[in-house]
Amino acid sequence: MSKVCTIAWVHGRVQGVGFRYSTQHEASRLGLTGYARNMDDGSVEVLACGEAPQVEKLIAWLKAGGPRSARVDKVLTEPHQPGREYQNFGIRY
């Protein structure tokens, strides 16, 4: 299996609803590394690295709406080559 990294921007009602914490929990459950952080435009940026099928599962979870308290309008993704390797899935501020 090959390791991949995907960066995603999640738009909608995704700040102030526990989105980053739920994403961290889901990503950790899938064995992924990376981070979730709030952006100034109200979106959440998610970097997910790991086995391709697991990264795809997280992206599908994001597109399906994430936690129940959130409302996801759109998810934009692109492949990413991070400048460093992440040891876990964290929350950035």
Automatic annotation (TrEMBL):
Domain of life: Bacteria
Enzyme class: hydrolase
Record keywords, A-Z: Hydrolase
GO molecular function, one term: acylphosphatase activity
Coiled coil segments of this chain: none
InterPro entries: Acylphosphatase, Acylphosphatase-like_dom, Acylphosphatase-like_dom_sf, Acylphosphatase_bac, Acylphosphatase_CS
Record EC number: 3.6.1.7
Active site per the UniProt annotation: R20, N38
Keyword Hydrolase annotated: yes
Catalysed conversion reaction: an acyl phosphate + H2O = a carboxylate + phosphate + H(+)
Similarity comment text for this entry: Belongs to the acylphosphatase family.
PANTHER family per record: ACYLPHOSPHATASE
UniProt-recorded name of the protein: Acylphosphatase
Source organism: Pseudenterobacter timonensis
Higher taxonomy: Bacteria, Pseudomonadati, Pseudomonadota, Gammaproteobacteria, Enterobacterales
